[in-house]
Automatic annotation (TrEMBL):
The gene is der. It comes from Maritalea mediterranea. This is GTPase Der. GTP 2 binds at residues 222-229, 269-273, 334-337. Residues 3-167, 216-391 form the EngA-type G domain. The keyword Zinc-finger does not apply. GTP 1 binds at residues 9-16, 56-60, 119-122. Associates with the 50S ribosomal subunit.
Amino acid sequence: MSVSVAIVGRPNVGKSTLFNRLVGKKLALVDDSPGVTRDRREGTGRIGDLTFNLIDTAGYEDADDGSLEARMRQQTEEAIRVADVILFMIDARAGVTPMDEHFGRLLRKADKKVTLVANKYEGQLADEGLYEAFKLGFGEPIALSAEHGMGLADLYNIVATTIEEAEENLKEGEAEFEAAVANLDESMMPEINVDLEEDGKGVEDGKGTYDPNRFLNVAIVGRPNAGKSTLINKMVGAERVLTGPEAGITRDAIMVPWEWQGRTINLVDTAGIRKKSKVQQKLEKLSVADALRSIQYAEIVVLMLDATIPFEKQDLQLADLVEREGRAIVIALNKWDLVKDKQGQLKDMKEACERLLPQLKGVPLVTLSGLRGKNIDRLMEAVLKVEKTWNSRISTARLNRWLTGMTESHPPPAVSGRRIKLRYMTQAKTRPPSFIIFCSRPDALPKSYERYLVKGLRETFGLEGVPIRLWIRGGQNPYHEKGKFKPS
């Protein structure tokens, strides 16, 4: 049985370093400056044979309500509320500070199982801080070095004991439930007759086969203050990530699992991405790199634009990056409730999108208000539709009939008096749809003719809004002699 372990403490004591070590990946941003982490981040922690849910939190600060620090504190308090065991981390080299004492008093009121962890226990300088930690009243502290992996055996014992207690409580609860069911009068029970469909089989949508029950990774990217975090909170129906009027609140890329119409959607909130020339500080560079990495691991990318100032140069560069990474994309025009001439503005934006992003012709354009929660269903319908298109597979026979028609209506140009022959075509892979054409002189085929073919593929097979890869190769039809392909 999995339990939840939250790492809490004041800023800059090494919480994210321990989080990264236990999950085995550098998921959380780590820097020497305090206050790097702002949102709570969850991951699967592992110590030996134990697996558990691990929560990294922002450094706890005593701040007034309404400020950014106060909203960060609320995220930490929520992590404490849902955790089964709390690792209260202090800096052994700095000793116990007044903020540690204040935080300790709050944890005692939470009525949770708390384990004191003295981090940065490297060398003799940390001994005094370790002994001083006893006065916090949480028993003997665990001497730990998250950076070097010291003290993990003691953490193993703490988590193992918590898992054993949780399993015992579960067994007791199951026994009570079975006893209660045994005493029920069956005549009072309602009749249930539900036909369950088998899942995991995938469905045939006419274009290709894909699994509509598989989880879907959706990254939400855009410029700072476009409303990405606000939208995610409205989707999940909770203040899961920090929001506010300040630009650049989000630093880490935070994954938030969400269920929509019975399907798990892994929403990834990312830091706002400014122009490269404006990104000077090391911490912002780390945040931007984390956001760009999220695009690589996503399947669908929602590019969030501010409808009051859409299609700035940075927006177009982000869209181009998504296309080059081969990810499906949906453009979300946020803050639509602030637009006055909605019909005229939408018409202008569609024209601008077709003109400025020809490589993504037909990309879905959805207007919404993240703050008010309007059109979230329309956004998700567009996401699932473009996912189907991104997974499209077209039969070789259909592709070669199409290729014959395209070359007959507009033959390839003659180069040096010799006509280029397009002999055979097949789809190499999906995600995104990628095709190979074998021709007589691949190096001589003009790029303009390749664009003509890509445009035809998009229009004929309904591949709007997704990247298309087209590779031109030399040689004959590789299946001609084997008899695997016979043109109709």
